[in-house]
Amino acid sequence: MSWLKNDLNLKKDAGYLGLSVWQSPGTLYLMWGFLIIFLIGIVFWVAGDSVDPVRLVITEFLVISTMLVIGNILIKTIDKLARVNRSKSEFVSIISHQLKTPLTGVSWEVELFNTKYKDGLTEKQREILKNIEMSNAVISRMVNDLLDVARIDQNNLFTKKEEIDIVSVIRKVIEKNEVLGKDNNIKIKFLVDDNMPKIIGDEKKTEVVLDNLISNAVKYNKRGGEVLIKVSRDAGKATISIRDNGIGIPKEDQAMIFEKFFRSDNAATQEVGGTGLGLFIAKNIIERGGGKIWFHSTEGEGSVFFVALPLV
Question: Where are the chain's structural domains?
Fold first, then answer.
């Protein structure tokens, strides 16, 4: 019964894979072995004395032994892969943490120049500092994405339950993305229901999700396009819609849009930077907070993403 012990150890050591005794390769192959034995038994029963009983017993023994060996090898292989995957996530987490320290230092230095020494800076120096600040923000966001992915892979992405003024959060995110919009002559409009109540969620992570969705609507829009953001309440939830009239998502790519590292072909050809992590992270954050995220899109016409979050 060593195969059963291996199955149970695998479930204990690599439980995050969601394996159970009855789903493991060892058990499946053993079941196939019993099926083959059953079929051989039927042949023996139908053929009567025409089948050598000794040969049948040997065949049954070989089938069972082979299936057990194969199952055991597969279990050990999956266990090794699980450990490698766990090590990979830990590696990404460590490297990302190490990168955050110098990036924070750069941010502080830029802020120091912009405050303490701003009167002595030339226009060219201010422009250089602005470019440094923008580049640092892009890299910091990528590092934060990697950290979030590592936490998701390790099932360590925790979300708070706090009251959030969602209108203020959206206005803050819009302000961050207006500079990017102006560069491409893209207007961002915001419509909200009167007396919008607060929502329940994690304010910092909700801001990350909205920043991702709104920046995508700007980046993948057409020059001179528009981003329309609406917030309404319905059935105990606040529904946020973010609509653009940009490149849209090809129909064949839509089923994979929330997968890790996925970018649709038309997005990859837009010369717009991206890691394919933003929507994967957004979906995990929203669903862990009791919300829902979905979208509608037509290639060449644009997309609209919806986020539903519980009200207070």
Answer: 2-86, 91-153, 162-310
Task: Determine how many CB atoms are found less than 10 A away from the CB of residue 218.
Answer: 25
Assigned architecture for domain 162-310:
2-Layer Sandwich (3.30)
Of 262, 222, 246, residue with least CA distance to 299: 246
Length of the chain: 312
d(CA 38, CA 40): 5
Distance CA 210, CA 229 (A): 10
Residue 97 structure tokens = 């943490």
Return averaged pLDDT per consecutive 10 residues of the chain, 312 residues in all: 42 40 46 52 48 54 54 57 60 64 75 78 79 76 80 81 94 89 89 91 93 93 93 91 95 93 78 80 93 95 96 90
Q: What is the pLDDT of residues 76-89, one digit of tens each?
A: 655 565 565 566 66
Output the six-digit token pair for 185.
């002559």
Residue 255: C-alpha distances to residues 184, 273, 294 (Å): 29, 22, 11
CA distance 205 to 147: 13
DSSP β-ladder status, 226-234 and 237-244: antiparallel
Rounded to whole angstroms, how far apart are CA atoms 295 and 258? 10
* Burial (CB count <10 Å: 0-12, 13-18, 19+), residue 37: middle
Give the tens place of pLDDT for each residue, 118-141.
777 788 877 877 777 777 777 777
Residue owning tokens 């933003």 = 278
Q: CA 278, 253, 248, 202 torsion: positive or negative? A: negative
> Structure pTM?
0.65
Residue 186 CB partners (closer than 8 Å, separation 6+): 180, 218, 221, 223, 224, 225, 226, 227
